[in-house]
Design brief:
There is one protein chain. This protein is mostly helical. It folds into two domains: 77 residues, Alpha Horseshoe (Serine Threonine Protein Phosphatase 5, Tetratricopeptide repeat); 64 residues, Serine Threonine Protein Phosphatase 5, Tetratricopeptide repeat (Alpha Horseshoe). Helix 2 packs antiparallel against helix 3. The longest helix has 26 residues. It is elongated and about 70 Å long. Keywords: Repeat, TPR repeat. This is AH receptor-interacting protein.
Length: 175
């Protein structure tokens, strides 16, 4: 297969460290474009590739060193984008895992709390979802309309589930 000049993209494992650093913003941009086009799975794969490049570079640094921290701060927005894709793909436990790892390092990351709250809500971890949404509001009160909408949606889903459970379990103990 013949490719146009500049269209070939080298696999991350074959890149030098410098090439990886230069490739990350381009891969990030490609992921964003795919996401805008509604190609969520493909976007997630791009974000994953960019994260892999940075993680590979980060492994060569002393944890906690300025270079390690700088790379970690580049990984975080990519990981949040990846989590947004995973939320849309209904892969909630992966979102919970990644957002929690971000929050272990950066406890004031509003986006990580918000995405984790949505994932908790999706898997019926109501208390955890409410706590994360409360943390979002504490960190950024301007998000009150969005958080209120999410909480109303969660309450409606809970009422629906309770009604279904009442029908499903009606008479189960009266035999």
């Amino acid at each position: 297969q013949v490719e146009a000049p500049g269209s070939y993209q080298q696999d991350p494992w074959a890149m030098t460290d410098e090439e990886k650093l230069q490739a990350v913003p381009l891969i990030h941009k490609e992921g964003n474009e795919l996401y805008r086009q509604g190609k969520v799975q493909e976007a997630a794969a791009k974000y994953y590739d960019a994260i892999a490049c940075l993680k590979n570079l980060q492994m060569k640094e002393q944890p906690g060193s300025p270079d390690w921290i700088e790379l970690d701060q580049k990984i975080t927005p990519l990981l949040l984008n990846y989590c947004q894709c995973k939320l849309q793909c209904e892969e909630y436990y992966e979102v919970l895992d990644h957002c929690s790892s971000i929050l272990n390092k950066y406890e004031d990351n509003v986006k990580a709390y918000f995405k984790r709250a949505k994932a908790h809500a999706a898997v019926w971890n109501v208390t955890e979802a409410q706590a994360d949404f409360a943390k979002v509001l504490a960190l950024d009160p301007s998000l009150r309309p969005v958080v209120s909408k999410e909480l109303r949606s969660l309450e409606a889903r809970l009422r629906e589930k309770d009604a279904e459970d009442k029908i499903r379990f009606k008479g189960i103990f009266s035999q």
